[in-house]
Design brief:
alpha/beta; Rossmann fold; 2 domains; five-stranded parallel beta sheet; 11 strands
Length: 331
């Protein structure tokens, strides 16, 4: 029996976690999720997951704690609600805000400069239809101005962009907060950095996209449930969205399982996502925005801090609240 078991631990992360793990704590690791590996019972009283893990409801009574190695924790709140057990849980609020913000910039810059088309046309060295756009003077609207969203806005300012923030909690004095309708109508680039709640699921809907200027670019580095793929596909087909970049996906666990296993899915959301991925000016990355050398070190160090605190003090340093919280993201 392990003291702690880490699910969804990719190779570099497992190595970094080992480097901070004390000899007194016995840990197990897998790159798989609980549903993929099929453990009949919890392999440890403390388990650590990321956002694709679906913890069996039957484990709740026997678990002493859950550590989610993510800045978001809506999946933990949902597990508590569905299991009926308020399992003590911790999260990592600050390890990746710069990494995720830089990935958002990478994605919108690639779309503005038509990078997928440039790569496709290299083989013929054909340059017609490859005229892109510069960032200076463009309007960037960030939906959700938490730690990650604020960093996105800072980057936008550095690129001489006009930056707008949309958030029900206005934490920053130096941000121009506007109504979502105004931001949608003004923005050349829209970045979703919102927390996911029961109220805002499906936020970027058909009705939302009808408010936007034609040719806008959309980047989601927060939660896939906020931007239903069918609505994105329709907006792209109508020319409302000139480019789409996603690092997170609706029905992400089903999508990841389908792709990793090479299986065909009948899930409507997965089918729409895969159809969208085939279109021009669409860039998908595998929920990897957090993944820099620097953030992996911070993530692993903070994860072991959480584990040590749990065993030594009986409580996490950064506990998941019992209710929903604002400005929490999902990486």
């Amino acid at each position: 029996m392990f003291d702690v078991y880490f699910y969804e631990a990719f190779a570099e992360e497992e190595s970094a976690l080992h480097s901070f793990l004390p000899d007194t704590i016995c840990a197990g690791f897998t790159a798989a999720t609980p549903q993929e590996i099929g453990h009949a019972v919890a392999p440890a009283a403390l388990i650590s997951v990321r956002t694709q893990s679906q913890i069996p409801l039957g484990w709740a009574q026997g678990l002493q704690g859950i550590l989610t190695r993510s800045t978001g924790y809506d999946h933990v709140l949902r597990y508590r609600q569905e299991s009926g057990v308020a399992v003590p849980a911790g999260y990592l609020p600050l390890y990746c805000h710069r990494a995720v913000a830089e990935q958002a910039m990478l994605l919108w810059m690639a779309l503005l400069r038509l990078l997928p088309r440039q790569q496709a046309q290299f083989h013929t060295f054909y340059r017609d239809g490859l005229t892109g756009r510069e960032t200076a003077g463009k309007t960037l609207a960030v939906f959700g101005v938490g730690n990650i969203g604020y960093e996105v806005l800072r980057i936008g300012r550095g690129l001489d962009m006009r930056v707008l923030g949309v958030d029900i909690v206005q934490r920053h004095d130096d941000v121009e907060y506007v109504a979502p309708e105004y931001a949608a109508a003004q923005a050349d680039i829209l970045v979703c950095a919102m927390n996911l709640t029961q109220e805002n699921q499906g936020y970027f809907s058909d009705d939302f996209w009808r408010q936007c200027r034609p040719g806008a670019v959309f980047v989601n580095i927060s939660r896939g449930e906020l931007s239903p793929p069918a609505a994105l596909l329709a907006a792209h087909e109508r020319g409302i969205l000139g480019g789409i970049a996603l690092d997170v996906y609706d029905a992400e666990s089903a999508l990841a399982g389908c792709l990793r296993g090479g299986k065909v899915s009948t899930d409507a959301s997965v089918v729409a996502t895969l159809a969208l991925q085939k279109r021009q000016q669409v860039i998908f990355t595998p929920h990897n925005a957090f993944n820099t050398e620097e953030s992996v070190v911070r993530k692993s160090s903070q994860s072991i801090e959480q584990v040590r605190a749990f065993f030594e003090r009986g409580a996490f340093l950064w506990p998941v609240p019992n209710g929903e919280s604002k400005n929490i993201l999902s990486h």
